[in-house]
Write a structure and sequence with these properties.
Elements: H1 4-14, H2 19-37, H3 43-47, H4 53-62, H5 78-87, H6 92-115, H7 120-123, H8 125-136, H9 141-151, H10 165-186, H11 195-202, H12 233-242, E1 252-260, H13 275-278, H14 282-291, H15 302-305, H16 308-316, E2 317-322, E3 333-339, E4 344-349, H17 362-371, H18 376-379, H19 385-395
Parallel strand pairs: 1-2
Antiparallel strand pairs: 1-3, 3-4
Helix pairs in contact: 1-6, 1-9, 2-4, 2-6, 2-19, 4-5, 4-10, 5-6, 5-8, 5-10, 6-8, 8-9, 8-10, 9-10, 12-14, 14-16
GO molecular function, one term: lyase activity
Family: Belongs to the PrpD family.
Domain MmgE/PrpD N-terminal: 58-196
Length: 399
């Protein structure tokens, strides 16, 4: 019986993308480049300047937490697989090969892997980046499996890093580990492919859940509307869509958020004091949704999080977690906003905009790209996989 690495390697090497797969790859390329260019002035650019291309591009692409998500595996697929592909000179098929590996490994790792505190984007990401880079380099099935096995030692990352630069950097480390592993396999390094199965079992996964049928990325990818953790997209959208009229922050007396416990797993900062922490705070997301016309980049700065009116609202929010929940969009979110005059507003939402069940329109995608920088729409108007690496090298040069 083939090992997991051999099964996935054969699928990746033989995969022929359909038109829908290629459309997903192009949207993922544009979305990833847009959110990466949006972070050109972030402090992390200086911090990560000496990292290799794959690591630097992935870390900067993830620092704003605006990149896409595969909900079924709880992994940020594109911010790992796009940089790994571009660093190896690959194209859409190489990206899709790694994306498919990452989606399937993430599903095999399961929800319990995530609730135990692992950052699945990194754990599934390192072998997936190896697959993308290996396909980009034209390696054989055996070499792709070897590359994934060689990436196993770097397949780590924990949720405790959320709210610090450690989160985006460990994503960068995963992308670079895969690119490095593919290069070693290309030069003749050997590894036991069954190492991937051993690792899966050690971190609580189930190799029997690997299923290579279906499209490249089963379930598709969710596109974020707001630059923060995906677990915040639904409560922010619920308030923005459900309130009958804008609510003055000073009028709010109490806020109660009811949601399944699993849907707030990554939201570890209850009293945030920095912009990065605010991206992983349900309490602050409620405050930003009530205070700001559109919770965008300006809402997730240190200054914005520490606004007196925001901190007052943060302290008012009570979270009522229902037992259970085995994915970020389980059940629905219910939010009750009570005003000082006794008025009560109740809102609820199942699927936020940008999710596969409410896919973004072309206009939605264009609006997001425009938010990422005045020059970004022009820079990405005719971008393809060949031009993309040059674009990143120009705007995020290494040392």
């Amino acid at each position: 019986m083939d090992s997991t690495a051999e099964t996935l390697a054969r699928w990746a090497q033989e995969f022929v993308p359909a038109a829908a797969d290629l459309a997903l790859a192009q949207r993922s390329l544009v979305d990833t480049l847009a959110v990466t260019l949006a972070a050109r002035d972030d402090e992390l650019v200086r911090v990560a300047a000496e990292l290799p291309d794959a690591a630097r591009w992935a870390a900067v692409g993830h620092v704003l937490d605006f990149d896409d998500l595969h909900i079924e595996s709880t992994t940020h697929i594109s911010v790992v697989c796009v940089p790994a592909t571009l660093a190896a000179g690959g194209d859409a098929r190489a990206y899709l090969a790694g994306a498919g590996v990452m989606a399937r490994l993430g599903v095999a790792l399961g929800w319990s892997h995530y609730t135990n505190g692992w950052h699945a984007t990194c754990t599934a990401g390192a072998p997936a980046a190896a697959a993308s880079a290996a396909v980009a380099l034209g390696l054989s099935t055996e070499q792709i499996a070897t590359a994934m096995a060689l990436a196993v030692p770097a397949a780590g990352g924990v949720q405790r890093a959320f709210g610090s630069s450690g989160k985006s950097l460990q994503v960068g480390f995963a992308a670079e580990a895969g690119a490095r592993a593919a290069g070693l396999a290309a030069r003749g390094a050997t590894a036991d492919p069954s190492a991937l199965d051993a690792w899966l079992l050690l971190v609580g996964g189930d190799p029997d859940r690997i299923d290579v049928s279906g499209p490249a990325v089963p379930g598709g990818l969710a596109i974020k509307v707001f630059p923060c953790c995906y677990a915040l997209q639904r409560p922010i959208s619920a308030l923005r869509e459900g309130l009958p009229e804008p609510v003055a922050a000073d009028d709010v007396a109490d806020v109660v958020v009811r949601t399944p416990a699993g849907t707030v797993q990554p939201l570890i900062h209850h009293r945030p004091t920095t912009g990065l922490q605010g991206k992983f705070s349900l309490e602050y997301a409620v405050a930003a949704a009530l205070l700001d016309p559109h919770p965008g980049f300006a809402s997730f700065t240190d200054h914005a999080v520490n606004r007196p009116e925001a901190q007052r609202l943060v302290r008012l929010v009570k979270v009522d977690e229902a037992p259970g929940g085995d994915w970020l969009l389980d059940g629905q979110v219910d939010i009750t906003v009570q005003l000082h005059d006794g008025t009560t507003h109740a809102v609820a939402l199942r699927f936020p905009p940008g999710s596969p069940d409410r896919p973004p329109s072309e206009q939605d995608v264009d609006a997001k790209i425009a938010d990422c920088g005045e020059d970004v729409p022009d820079l990405l108007s005719e971008v393809d996989w060949r031009r993309a690496a040059r674009l990143l090298a120009e705007h995020l040069p290494g040392r």
